[in-house]
Amino acid sequence: MGTITYHRVSADDCEILAETRISMTIELTGDQPQEIKDKLKLQLVAYFKKATEDNTCISYLAKVNGEIAGIGSVHLREMPGNFYNLSGKWAYVMSMFTLPAFRRKGVCTGILKVLMEDARKEGFNAFELHASTEGKFVYEQNGFQEHKQPTFRRYF
Q1: Alpha helix (H) ranges present in the chain?
Q2: Which run of H or E residues covers position 137?
Q3: d(CA 7, CA 63)
Q4: Burial of 21 from C-beta contacts in 10 A (0-12 / 13-18 / 19+)
Q5: What DSSP state is assigned to residue 140?
Q6: Quick count: other Cβ atoms within 10 Å of Cβ 29?
Q7: pLDDT digit string, tens, across residues 19-76
Q8: Taking a C-beta distance cutoff of 8 angstroms, is the pair 98, 70 a contact?
Q9: Residue 76 in contact with residue 18, Cβ under 8 Å?
Q10: Pairing of strands 126-129, 4-8
Q11: How far is CA 146 from the centre of its chain?
């Protein structure tokens, strides 16, 4: 396969990050009309550029022989603390995606480790995420525990 390298995303990398996240979303939810994908790409590029520049989001690209193998991000947010996380600093792991040709080769685990290392350097010690059925094993292997409270959503 070759050596996996991890590259922290700069504002210049946000387009490829957005395109890969769209590929992830299509895999999870199904294809969408091109107009919707184009609108989403504009929003994602704008979000990742802003969040990368103001350091509220750290993202990595994993590459093998110069080819994108996977992506991952951690969104850094502060909320009221609780008894388990007195600081209220939460690092939300998102956009974890390994391209099919590179799955089960340690790409996701490697991205997760560099994301957590960078977030911890920024003072974040509590991590959370939503996992796909396929990704659950990776997170459990890295010390994450399933939270028993359900997630509710409402869209307008």
Answers
A1: 14-29, 34-53, 107-121, 136-141
A2: helix 136-141
A3: 8
A4: buried
A5: H
A6: 8
A7: 999 999 999 999 999 999 999 999 999 999 999 999 999 999 999 999 999 999 999 9
A8: yes
A9: no
A10: unpaired
A11: 18
Instruction: State both tokens at 59.
Output: 């993202």
Give the amino acid at 58.
I
Looking at the DSSP assignment, which residues form a beta bridge with residue 97? 71
pTM of the model: 0.91
The tokens for 5 are: 């390298």
Q: At what angle are helices 14-29 and 34-53 packed, to 10 degrees? A: 130
Is residue 113 within 8 Å of residue 68, measured between CB atoms? Answer: no
Q: Kindly list the domain boundaries of the chain, sorted by start residue.
A: 4-141
Question: Domain 4-141 belongs to what architecture?
Answer: 3-Layer(aba) Sandwich (3.40)
